[in-house]
Amino acid sequence: MAAIDPKYFDVTVYMYPTREAARAGMKVGGAGFLIGLLPTTMVPSAIGEERHGFHRYVVTNAHVQQNGCTVVRETDDGLTEIYETAPDDWVVSGEDDIAIVRLDEHLSNYVPSDMCLSEDCKIGEWELYPGDEVEFFSRFIALDGGQRNQPLLRTGTLAMLPSPDARVRINGRDQLSFLVESRSIGGASGSPVWVQLAQPRVRHFAKQYPPLADNWIPSDRMLLGCNCGHWPYWTQARSSKSDAAMLIPNNYIETNSGVAVIVPAWRILALLDHPKLVAQRVETGT
């Protein structure tokens, strides 16, 4: 794993139902992250680089926003800010478990939109494959920093790429999703998920790749997408803690399958083209 710039942690925000809950650091809500929409006339940028002309947004899960968690808590260089938004300020996807709100005037750290993985699932000229390395900069609600955000780094392995023929039913939506071998936990919903090419990398025998200097391949992180939960695994309930205990008809217990479900980054960019958000950008003339 490559070294991690601390600014990656600062793009993760915590979502709360009230300002009071955010101020107290209550163990409720979920997570989100900050994204900056890069105008096409700008050159690529990096997290934390000061730029003008960006439109900054908070991304979280639709189920987090619809559960009333619309207060955003950001921590930057140890300083915490709390921003209240109204439910109607948000654009909620009808297809994916994501919701977005514009918050231009406040937020300093963000993921530039050119760091979002595109639908071709490539980093440079190299395609993603199962086995590539995944990182979550996530909220750990059991120990999340109290009065300031303290995201937890978790890692995993890309297990399955999204396919229109294998949509994932989760949180009331049938959506394109990456599947990642990594446990998803309560409070982590909405956190950003990053991917890197596994090193060293084997060339696919059926593909023609450009020549590489000194066998170099990209190690830059790209935003894989937004964590929206785990694949549910249902087991039938028993009358007691024993393999021989009687099964209880029509009673099932949801357990964690160990497979996290990720909304692809390009689906986030698609929602940023929602007419409401486009109209907001038109109003500012940028």
Please provide a written account of the structure.
This protein is mostly beta strands. Helices cover 11% and strands 38% of the residues. It is built from five helices and 18 strands. Strands 1, 2, 3, 4, 5, 6, 7 and 8 form an eight-stranded mixed beta sheet that branches. It is globular, with a radius of gyration of 20 Å.
Please specify the SSE layout and strand pairing.
Blueprint lengths: L6 H4 L1 E5 L2 H6 L5 E8 L17 E6 L1 H5 L4 E6 L2 E6 L6 E2 L6 E4 L8 E2 L9 E2 L2 E2 L5 E6 L13 E9 L7 E3 L2 E3 L2 E4 L10 E5 L25 E17 L8 E18 H7 L3 H10 L2
Parallel strand pairs: 2-8
Antiparallel strand pairs: 1-2, 1-4, 2-3, 3-7, 4-5, 6-7, 9-10, 11-12, 11-16, 12-15, 13-14, 15-18, 16-17, 17-18
